[in-house]
């Protein structure tokens, strides 16, 4: 599986099924260390958000379901910013100009890592949870562990907001 991610063999595959997995605290894997450069050329590291609940969304511009969920992700981001929740996209296929155009078209204001060339961010998460197809959205707890996973496009803000609230309630 690791070689497939490194080689980009699954870049254009899009999830057909919707699935939500909430992972009990005692069953979560190790914290995920990931990073890279955003579409605006800024460096990002998971250390920058450690101690905060975060949402990580794997996407690319040509993914129809990614386009459909963009507005709901942005709305959820706006709703939970005041709670200290961080959002970061991981673009697994496009170059920066395409990601910027997508953000402008769909009103996305949170940053995205440009992961198409290296696959490093996707690979880091593959060690603890499968990233089978975009869109995949992860909720990361304050310790940097995957607390929940949504495979397929989020449908509205309700489920993701509930998963975020659950992670916010956890004691560190």
TrEMBL record:
<protein>
    <submittedName>
        <fullName>TlpA family protein disulfide reductase</fullName>
    </submittedName>
</protein>
<dbReference type="InterPro" id="IPR036249">
    <property type="entry name" value="Thioredoxin-like_sf"/>
</dbReference>
<dbReference type="InterPro" id="IPR000866">
    <property type="entry name" value="AhpC/TSA"/>
</dbReference>
<feature type="domain" description="Thioredoxin">
    <location>
        <begin position="9"/>
        <end position="172"/>
    </location>
</feature>
<keyword id="KW-0676">Redox-active center</keyword>
<keyword id="KW-0735">Signal-anchor</keyword>
<keyword id="KW-0812">Transmembrane</keyword>
<dbReference type="InterPro" id="IPR017937">
    <property type="entry name" value="Thioredoxin_CS"/>
</dbReference>
<dbReference type="GO" id="GO:0017004">
    <property type="term" value="P:cytochrome complex assembly"/>
</dbReference>
<dbReference type="Pfam" id="PF00578">
    <property type="entry name" value="AhpC-TSA"/>
</dbReference>
<dbReference type="InterPro" id="IPR050553">
    <property type="entry name" value="Thioredoxin_ResA/DsbE_sf"/>
</dbReference>
<keyword id="KW-0201">Cytochrome c-type biogenesis</keyword>
<keyword id="KW-1015">Disulfide bond</keyword>
<dbReference type="GO" id="GO:0016491">
    <property type="term" value="F:oxidoreductase activity"/>
</dbReference>
<dbReference type="GO" id="GO:0030313">
    <property type="term" value="C:cell envelope"/>
</dbReference>
<dbReference type="GO" id="GO:0016209">
    <property type="term" value="F:antioxidant activity"/>
</dbReference>
<dbReference type="InterPro" id="IPR013766">
    <property type="entry name" value="Thioredoxin_domain"/>
</dbReference>
């Amino acid at each position: 599986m690791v070689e497939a991610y490194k080689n980009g063999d699954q870049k254009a595959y899009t999830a057909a099924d919707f699935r939500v997995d909430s992972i009990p605290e005692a069953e979560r894997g190790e914290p995920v260390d990931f990073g890279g450069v955003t579409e605006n050329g800024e460096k990002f590291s998971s250390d920058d958000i450690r101690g905060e609940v975060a949402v990580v969304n794997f996407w690319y511009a040509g993914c129809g379901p990614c386009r459909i969920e963009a507005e709901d992700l942005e709305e959820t981001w706006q709703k939970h910013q005041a709670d200290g929740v961080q959002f970061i996209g991981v673009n697994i296929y496009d170059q920066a100009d395409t990601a910027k155009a997508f953000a402008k078209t769909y009103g996305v204001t949170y940053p995205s890592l440009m992961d198409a060339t290296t696959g490093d961010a996707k690979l880091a998460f593959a060690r603890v949870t499968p990233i089978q197809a975009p869109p995949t959205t992860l909720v990361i707890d304050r310790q940097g562990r995957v607390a929940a996973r949504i495979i397929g496009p989020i449908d509205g803000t309700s489920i993701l907001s509930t998963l975020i609230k659950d992670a916010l309630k956890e004691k560190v």
